[in-house]
C-alpha cells in the first residue's frame, strides 16, 4: 500500500495541523509526512466541507503556488486536489503529476485535460458536480457506487483514460447536513463493500480519517483489511501502524484456520 500524505494550503481545512500556507511551512510538512511513511504528497487549496468558502481559479492558484513549489522540490509524486481545470493546468505546469479530481471528472473539460496530460487520476464517487453540495445516496450505497463507477468509466473510455484511473469511494464527501452517526454508518457500508470495486480491475484509493476516535479507527481497520493500493492520509505513521496490525491479525487468524484438527482415533 502506498500513501499520499496530505498537505492543505486552504485556511478552511478542518484538520488545522495539515495546513501549510507558504513555501517554508509546506516544505517542512512535506518532509515530515515522508519521514512518517508517505510515498507521495497530495495538495489542495479549496476545502470541500459545507462551510468552506468558494475560491476562483486565480485565488486557488495564489493559495497553491508557493506550497506546490516546495512539495515538488522534494522529488516525489505530487497530486493536486481541485475541481477547477484552470487550477489543474497551472499546477501541472508547475510540476504536479497526479490529478485528484474533486469534480470526479464529471466535467468534460476536466476529462479532456486529464487525457491531454496522460496523467494518473483519482476519481471519487460523488453524486452531483459540487462536493460541497452533494445529493443523498438512497438504497444500497455500495450498489449505487458500483453503478456510478460503471457509467463514469464508460465516459472515461471515450477519452482513453480508464487505465490511468484510481477509484476513490468518495467517503471524504458527504451531504453537509449529515451528522457523524450518519456518516459513520454510510462509511462502514461503503468500506465493507470495497471489494465490489475489484470488478473494474483498477487500483483503489481511499482517503482515511484523521481523527483518532475508536469508531474512526474501526473504519480505518476495515479499509486496511481490504488490500487497497493507495491511501490518502493526514497521519501516515498511524496508518502504517494500523495496516501492520490488521495484516498481522489476518495472518494469525489464517494460521489458526489452517491448523489441522486433532483428536483421538478410537
Walk me through what this model shows.
- This protein has 266 residues and is of the alpha/beta class.
- The chain has one domain: Alpha-Beta Barrel (TIM Barrel), CATH 3.20.20.
- The chain contains eight helices and eight strands; from the N terminus they run E-H-E-H-E-H-E-H-E-H-E-H-E-H-E-H.
- Strands 6-5-4-3-2-1-8-7 form an eight-stranded parallel beta sheet, with helices on one face.
- Helix 2 (57-72) packs parallel to helix 3 and helix 3 (85-93) packs parallel to helix 4.
- It is globular, with a radius of gyration of 19 Å.
- The mean pLDDT is 90.
TL;DR of this structure?
This protein has helices at 23-35, 57-72, 85-93, 108-117, 141-158, 180-192, 214-224, 236-258; strands at 2-8, 40-44, 78-82, 98-101, 120-124, 165-168, 205-207, 230-233.
List keywords for this structure.
266 residues, alpha/beta, TIM Barrel, 8-stranded parallel beta sheet, 8 strands, globular
Overall pLDDT: 90
Instruction: Based on the coordinates given, report the CATH architecture.
Output: Alpha-Beta Barrel
Number of domains: 1
Strand arrangement across the biggest beta sheet:
6-5-4-3-2-1-8-7
Fraction of helical residues: 40-55%
Derived from helix and strand composition plus strand pairing, the structural class reads alpha/beta
Please report the distance between the alpha carbons of the first and last residues: 50 Å
- What about the largest sheet? 8 strands, parallel
Global Rg: 19 Å
**Number of E strands:** 8
Separate helix tally:
8
The low-pLDDT segments are: none
Shape: globular
CATH class: Alpha Beta
Amino acid at each position: 500500500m502506498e500513501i499520499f500524505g496530505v498537505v492543505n494550503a486552504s485556511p478552511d481545512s478542518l484538520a488545522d495541523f495539515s495546513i501549510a500556507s507558504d513555501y517554508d511551512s509546506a516544505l517542512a510538512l512535506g518532509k515530515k509526512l515522508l519521514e512518517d511513511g508517505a510515498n507521495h504528497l497530495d495538495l489542495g487549496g479549496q476545502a470541500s466541507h459545507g462551510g468552506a468558502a468558494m475560491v476562483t481559479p486565480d485565488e486557488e492558484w495564489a493559495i497553491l503556488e508557493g506550497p506546490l513549489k516546495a512539495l515538488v522540490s522534494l522529488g516525489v509524486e505530487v497530486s493536486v486536489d481541485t475541481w477547477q481545470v484552470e487550477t489543474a493546468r497551472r499546477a501541472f505546469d508547475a510540476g504536479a503529476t497526479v490529478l485528484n479530481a474533486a469534480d470526479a471528472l464529471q466535467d468534460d473539460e476536466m476529462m479532456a485535460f486529464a487525457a491531454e496530460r496522460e496523467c494518473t487520476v483519482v476519481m471519487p464517487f460523488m453524486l452531483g458536480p459540487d462536493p460541497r453540495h452533494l445529493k443523498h445516496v438512497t438504497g444500497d450505497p455500495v450498489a449505487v457506487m458500483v453503478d456510478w463507477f460503471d457509467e463514469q468509466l464508460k465516459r472515461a473510455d471515450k477519452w482513453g483514460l480508464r487505465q490511468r484511473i484510481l477509484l476513490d469511494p468518495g467517503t471524504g464527501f458527504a451531504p453537509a447536513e449529515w451528522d457523524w452517526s450518519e456518516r459513520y454508518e454510510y462509511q462502514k457500508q461503503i468500506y465493507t463493500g470495497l471489494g465490489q470495486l475489484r470488478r473494474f480491475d483498477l487500483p483503489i484509493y481511499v482517503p482515511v480519517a484523521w481523527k483518532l476516535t475508536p469508531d474512526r479507527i474501526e473504519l480505518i481497520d476495515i479499509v486496511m483489511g481490504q488490500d487497497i493500493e493507495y491511501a490518502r492520509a493526514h497521519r501516515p505513521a498511524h496508518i502504517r501502524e494500523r495496516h501492520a496490525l490488521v495484516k498481522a491479525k489476518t495472518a494469525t487468524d489464517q494460521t489458526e484456520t489452517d491448523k489441522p484438527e486433532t483428536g483421538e482415533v478410537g
